[in-house]
Amino acid sequence: MRLIERHPLLVPPLRLSVEQRDALSGWITQEVEDAFAARLQQEARWRDVLRLYEGVPKNPTRNVPIENAPNIEVTIGAIAADAIYAQALDLLYTVSPFITARAVGPPFVEHAKAVQRFANWMAANELGLREAAEHTVLDDVQLGTGIYYIPWVEHTQKTDVHRVLTRGPRCLSIDPKDFIVPGGAYGDLQAVRWCGFRFWYTEGEFRERATLGKWDASKAMPVGMVDWVRSHRETLGLTASSKRISELYEVIDLYAYYDVDGDGIDEHLLVTWDRSSRSVLKARYVPYDRRPAEAMRYQLRAHLFYGLGVLEMIRPYQEEVTEIHNWRNTNMMIANARLWKAKTGVVPETMRIWPNKVVSLDDPDSLKPEQLGEIYPSAPQAEAITLSLAERRVGVNELSMPRPSQVLGSRTPGITALSLLQQVNRRFTPAFDAIRFATAGAVRQGLYRYQERLLAGDTQVAQHLREVLGESDAALVEEVLKTSRFDDAVAVELTASSASISREADRQNAIMLVNILATYYQRTLELVAIAANPQTPEPVREVAKKIATAAGEIIDRTVRAFDQVRDPETFVVNVEAELDQTVGQVPQQGLAGLVQMLALGAGGNGRPTEPVA
Predict the structure, then answer these.
(1) Quick one: which H or E segment has residue 296?
(2) Distance, CA of 366 to CA of 345 (rounded, Å)
(3) Is it true that the peptide bond before 97 is cis, omega within 30 degrees of 0?
(4) pLDDT tens digits along 298-342
(5) C-alpha angle with apex 371: 367 to 374, nearest 5 degrees?
(6) Residue in 586, 585, 581, 611 with CA at minimum distance from that of residue 596
(7) φ/ψ bin of 95: left (φ > 0), alpha (ψ from -120 to 50), beta (otherwise)
């Protein structure tokens, strides 16, 4: 069974003359080769940090100060990366619901609920998000950059006939080495001049895609060698993709702004390009409203695309700790060994020694030991100092983890403990937010793929929505996806989670929020009743309106402080609109409710007061 990208046919075909095709091919050749050359040092750094993670020594043997000296790579970078990777996955997947869709405006509240149900189903059953996130987040932590690719794919299987089993969006993890941007590009993938996905196809995969995609494969040729970063990954992982490298094709899908017709305005194109033959296999207008890619960076490099990973941050400290550790082991060996001084001819060349062996000598003074080295106790302290610096650089204490009681103590107040946890979490806010936003963007991209298919009139997609959601929810999802205001109507994001937020804390916050809103709604109802009563004097009615409006504002600001709520305007009552509908219709209790509410606001005991005459 194979996954085949099936780009939607929403746009008319792009017809190019021979001159235009040659010009496009020449431009792509120059741009892509310049991009690969510009990141050559970046790829060398990726190879090095992968070696650090695997714990492979920089040199196979160490012959200083003695032959076959201890040669161990101390993997403090891997310790920190694994700890942060586990925290990142915990951030994404310990919260329920996984996806939160909220209505930006009141007309789309029901639509947002239906979209949320569909997005959670899609992420769990169709998008393959967990598998892609595990690899992409690991790339982000190790190398500093992670890439999601979200195309529309078909699951195909050919036995006696060629069959399409399922169709839908799929989230794929792309190795950063196989995602190409111009040298010095910024981080916005939708605005960058061009970006490309590189794929390595076998002969069968290439021919199948060429047939389905109607590629001009007459000039295509296999590569001479696989990418050096990929080959290094496989070498470190003790595996290899194929020894028949000559059968692999290096194909790049390039999303580019390029003036193909020379009118001075760049067209947005999707070009399938064979790097070996430097030929255009297919060129067409971009079939997506947005480029199907989402990127995350662990630590931003200002105004650059590729980020800084944990292993690169900690690399100088790992090199220092490795040197100290190996020298300490060598020192122990030398300090526990002896150099023997003997008169010529006393000890035969073939003699070997072992514990408790007796050596017969005419003169015992003719064989004397000489100590080769002294024990230096400062090496462990030097390692500890370097480890503390490494911990401060990456923000984890997994390298020299103390017990929880040593950190907080047995009588630490709860508020103090929570503050300490919040300080720990704050160090990872930019990195973890980048992971959350990119993963939420991948879910949004899946919804965009459905939107594009629905706008193209794909009846199978509409039927699929009805089978998954039922008629009512499917109608709501289809309606909001077909509108051009989808992004303005529904916001899709990952549910917040952090070291300072737990399920129990979420539950307590929800109860607190419900109590606040219940009191607010009760008092607002009393104020509206007062203002709508025809017998209420006009000055009192105006004061009631002002109080209700001010209460709505303070409630809006209060609700925004809760992480569970992203749309506080949904919970605030528009008093002016309600009064327009209730004037003269609601029997009232005079000013008793107003007086009681004012007493509560002033710190009263909440007991009813006598009505004002």
Answers:
(1) strand 293-297
(2) 10
(3) yes
(4) 999 988 999 999 999 999 999 999 999 999 999 888 888 888 888
(5) 170
(6) 611
(7) beta
